[in-house]
Design brief:
mainly beta; 7-stranded mixed beta sheet
Length: 121
């Protein structure tokens, strides 16, 4: 079994920053790419950022430089910081990971449970 557990969201004032964590556990042998997505009300899931195991990050243009993704391979963790928050950043944020389980069958895609970030004015 593999689980991705997110934490760190909540209600945040506009202009501030928010940090979100995602920690994998279970029968994990290796994790390749990890990333973050979000779903705004009534919209499709939007890709925000991805990071390779060595730490090479890519970002969606829509965030306009306001997002930072990092990871800690020793903790099977990926982190997201969103800066200069705007009300339109309000969304359910999901982490993603491509994971090879201990059975070493194939890499599979896993998702966190989603965590709410609400930005108030």
């Amino acid at each position: 079994q593999v689980q991705l557990v997110e934490s760190g969201g909540g209600l945040v004032q506009a202009g501030n920053s928010v940090g979100i964590s995602c920690v994998g556990s279970g029968n994990i042998f290796n994790i390749r790419n990890m990333g973050w997505y979000r779903e705004k009300p009534g919209q499709e899931r939007e890709w925000l950022a991805s990071i390779t195991r060595p730490g090479v990050a890519t970002y969606a243009q829509s965030l306009q430089g306001r997002v930072t993704i990092t990871r800690d391979n020793d903790r099977n963790a990926v982190y997201l910081q969103v800066h200069s928050l705007k009300p339109e950043d309000t969304a359910l944020y999901y982490c993603h990971a491509s994971i090879l389980m201990t059975n070493r069958d194939a890499y599979k895609e896993f998702w966190g449970q989603g965590i709410q970030v609400t930005v108030s004015q």
